[in-house]
């Protein structure tokens, strides 16, 4: 192999006297019209100055939509925007050639835009050596035009794709890419191409042992990679002198509000060349600041330092989208003369990065500023070495100002603030709320609302709105704190700093529940301690004491079902017993009466703390939640406490619980991982461990007690549990029908209770739902939830997960029809899933009815033969197709026909105008018709209905 490479190099050097051609290039695009899909494409080619050939000779530019320019230089010039190939010598025996084309696409879609030309330059070692002269040069840009993702252009590349490297020294390149739309960029190495869909077959990657097999540090193997986030391309390290070509793509990604995911918009392919030479030179170094955030409108300045270990002169340069802004672009100035033109200077040298930011620079993604340092060896025959560093700068919108609050007439909270300074950029104003204060500094890179703060987004408002009334589940006695954030629209996006916090307390003129604490965990004899305060700030003249209280209990975290009057008392504490605290959370509300037994008002509801556990290998993960009017995530009482049994060395003491740890919920949330660190005793996978959690909370009101201490129920779980729970059984109320489904699968169709209700819905109704109930034999008492699977056809392999619930009832909403089959699986605390239950299905309720007369006289009433659509019980429902034919009264000649099959927008109502197949009016009289209606159902016996009858035309 060494002999082969030596021969290859000799052949390469022998061809240097030949005419050579293309070294590198790429295609970029920008959209130049707001009203049409018109784009401007820029083709950039780097060619060998020793070549007698001109760029464009034989070249073909393909827009990927049927339009092709070329082949030939003249055709390319004629189709370009100014008829010229712009040429510029850029050093390294290389000429930069640029030409631009405009193109309007017919429709949205994904387009492969490409340029192909013979020939590459000769002697490219990893593309076949001297034979590379015969390999076409080809680059592609993928452009996705999607109306749902707004206007889009491709990434722009600012650093030329020709670089020199030294044998045995790590090589670094960066394309200096930026996206004018603020999209996220990602980088991948690909194989160079020679035509559409055709890779260069002779390509050898740079980390192939035949090309390079050692790194700069002497280690092996060689490294050839690209950082997917920064675009730093590294080859560590070249082994042989010569020219090498590689290719990589720069992808652009944008978040889609429609899918809730980041969507790939396309990419630019860069085909680049690396010139490797022998040299006795060390790479220069850079010093750049740490990544930072800055408020829009502020001046950002930073000193960038470079130096060379060999004390050679150095050149400092900077690239990126910050220098391409339409408003206030950044500057990079030599120190001390502030010269904007980069030039070689004695090492060490410094330059000033200076950027006067403004609101147009705000975006979600940080700007990547690329700094490049090059050296200039005293021996001019030696190659220059370079180094790159990336500085991430995020421009953040300023915070909304002057937030104020007051109690409204209806005991709601009215907010006011100053008109937002960035309203011209169409952000929305987000309103956040929490109970009790959470102090943080909205500055530097602390943007928006910290997730650990406990603040919740309660509304989004038009940016020109400067007031808001909050009346959503406000609890008297609680201190509510608010912050505002401006959220800028995609594609650039951007979140402002948060406003200064504003807090206000609602007067406590009703009881306030302070405790809902599980004192005993049991399926039938569970106990909960409930405590509340009297209405401390009530007008006792209008509502004279003493007060009587009714304690109301609900099952679950939401809904008003299973409501019970627990007790009537004059006390403010109660122990509620006989409960299933093992499996259910409970909510409580207090109603109160004055001394004349008049009902005055009621408290907010407050739930018990519900603890869940997930079994892992030698570990248990705990999660808990509560629906309460106070905050369980407060800075004054930030810890929740974890208790566990089996804390003795033998892990055999099941009766006694010990505090094993605490968790900082303001940072980590309501979760805890027990890995057996308490007392250094690991958890054993052959026994159950039981836990409960003690929470701390506060109303943020000094007249109410704090902290509010409440216990979750006890939960037991075994680490490493691999035994799935029992299969659930879906309840089958009423009658069922069994039909043959796909592939002979029997389908059990339930009697659909919704069919009697759908007749009340309008004909265009399309928002259906199905409700399932089931039972499960919870043998190990560790079922955590249930997975619900759905199939529109009942075919065995077609079921998909559509929901998960802790309850044994599920309503599947937002359906286009009732038709479909369900299976249920139980999931235990170890994430083991049972086998799926037997399937049960719901079917549609088909209906269709036709009249026997109509009057096509253009009076706007009964002008067509139309399926009934009034009243609602006669609406056509769940129709797949209609085939309609009209004959003369003897049933002989076919006069008219209509079939919805293959029609893009079928009219299932028919709406025959009383004409024949040529559009001629038929005379008044009686005609015979047939109609075959196909319904969307699972039951084959209901799939088709034949209508044969007479219809009378009255003119």
Automatic annotation (TrEMBL):
Pfam families according to UniProt: CHU_C
InterPro entries, per database record: FN3_sf, Ig-like_fold
UniProtKB keywords: Signal
Keyword Signal set for record: yes
Signal sequence region: 1-19
Protein name: Gliding motility-associated C-terminal domain-containing protein
Source species: Roseivirga pacifica
